[in-house]
Specification:
This is 3-isopropylmalate dehydrogenase. With 360 residues, the protein is an alpha/beta fold. Helix content is 40%, strand content 21%. A hairpin with a 5-residue loop joins β11 and β12. The structure holds 1,4-dihydronicotinamide adenine dinucleotide and magnesium ion.
Length: 360
């Protein structure tokens, strides 16, 4: 099985995207060579660069290419210079189009604090040391998509803004299974976050998650209201293993959880569907303020590559090798600017890539 060749769509996008993607690809190529499998890259246009060249931030050829691949390796899109464009032309629109086009309903964000970086967080060492949690956010339902939505004018001429939070039983069940499957492979604990004291949609959510839990007797299920979860995440984050939540709550909690580590340049993510290619990308954006200066931290991109190996390509050993190489390079004291602290060795994006390659 390890002799096969995977077809991967590489989407560099804007800002620091091309710099960090180049590093990530070189590392994936190296680990593939070592482990005896192949990666066939195909490059697509996405984001502002795609808009400038084709008039569309997600050209149909890019989506088609993504659909026909084993996985999508994405960097980042966006630049403040596109902020004045109409909504459907904005680079960020391409992300929504890609999620919808690949039916990616599960967003996975691991939040792990590496021992070398505990001092990068603004929280106390004892609070964050050893954090290893995973936020599973439902990505294609909930209030961002529910109908009716819009700004409506009534007969008297006064306007109302409307969004609707909807979850069907089937939508809850499938995201719950993704989260329980992960919990089984991790710490066997799952905390489902909702607002069941106020929202009917959350009552159904809680009921279905509890029902699905019966299929996973080895996973300990708890429920938490989202306001409390927001507090608990900063009070004692180590109580969590897998956090399962809907689209809106997950958007907020996953950013909060990411910031526990204090280092946006370190955090990978995966977006998965029921079958077909997943999308693997860093949590951060295109960082236009440091683009083209060789200052970006490529590690979130590199670790997203490791997630791709683990979740889409079934190469967990190759994934672990990349993760270990990253930790080893940090242990040697090499740092990009975003994670730099006194006494460490400051290096650029490209050199960080070279150090990780050498370690591999
Ligand atoms: P951002 O994540 O791009 O940058 C926030 C801050 O973190 C900046 O100071 C940046 O220099 C720094 N930073 C981010 N990644 C870094 C890395 N790898 N190494 C070192 N420093 C890093 O968020 P911002 O500034 O709000 O947005 C910039 C653009 O990115 C916008 O157009 C936004 O819409 C887009 N964006 C795209 C995302 C995506 O492609 N998934 C996600 C978030 C924002
Ligand atoms: Mg967000």
């Amino acid at each position: 099985a390890s002799a096969r060749t995977y077809r991967i769509t590489a989407l560099a996008g804007d800002g620091i995207g091309p710099e960090i993607l180049q590093v990530g690809r070189a590392i994936l190529d190296a680990v593939a060579k070592r482990m005896g499998f192949g990666i066939q890259w195909q490059e697509g246009l996405i984001g502002g660069i795609a808009y400038e060249q084709t008039g569309d931030p997600l050209p149909p050829e890019t989506l088609k290419m993504a659909q026909d691949s084993d996985a999508v390796y994405l960097a980042a899109v966006g630049d403040f210079k596109y902020d004045t464009l109409p909504r459907e032309k904005r680079p960020e629109r391409a992300l929504l189009g890609l999620r919808a086009g690949l039916s990616l309903f599960a967003n996975l964000r691991p939040v792990k604090i590496l021992p070398q970086l505990v001092d990068a967080s603004s929280l106390k060492r004892e609070v964050i040391e050893g954090i290893d949690l995973m936020v599973v956010r439902e990505l294609t339902g909930g209030i961002y998509f529910g109908q009716p939505k819009g700004i409506f004018t009534d007969a008297q001429g006064s306007r109302r803004g409307v969004n609707t939070m909807v979850y069907s039983e089937a939508e809850v069940d499938r995201i719950a299974r993704v989260a329980f499957d992960l919990a089984q492979k991790r710490g066997h604990k799952l905390c489902s976050v909702d607002k069941a004291n106020v929202l009917e949609v959350s009552q159904l959510w809680r009921e279905r998650v509890t029902a699905v839990a019966a299929e996973y007797p080895d996973v300990e299920l708890s429920h938490m209201y989202v306001d409390n979860a927001a507090m608990q995440l900063v009070r004692w984050p180590k109580q969590f293993d897998v956090i399962l939540t809907g689209n809106l709550f997950g958007d907020i909690l996953s950013d909060e959880a990411a910031m526990l580590t204090g280092s946006i340049g370190m955090l990978p993510s995966a977006s998965l569907g029921a079958s077909g290619p997943g999308v693997y990308e860093p949590v951060h954006g295109s960082a236009p303020d440091i683009a083209g200066q060789d200052k970006a931290n490529p590690i979130a991109q590199v670790l997203s590559g490791a997630m791709m190996l683990r979740y889409s390509l079934d190469q967990p050993e190759a994934a672990a090798q990349i993760e270990q190489a990253v930790e080893a390079v940090l242990a040697q004291g090499y740092r990009t600017g975003d994670i730099y602290s006194e006494g460490m060795t400051l290096i650029g994006c490209q050199e960080m890539g070279e150090k990780i390659l050498a370690m591999l």
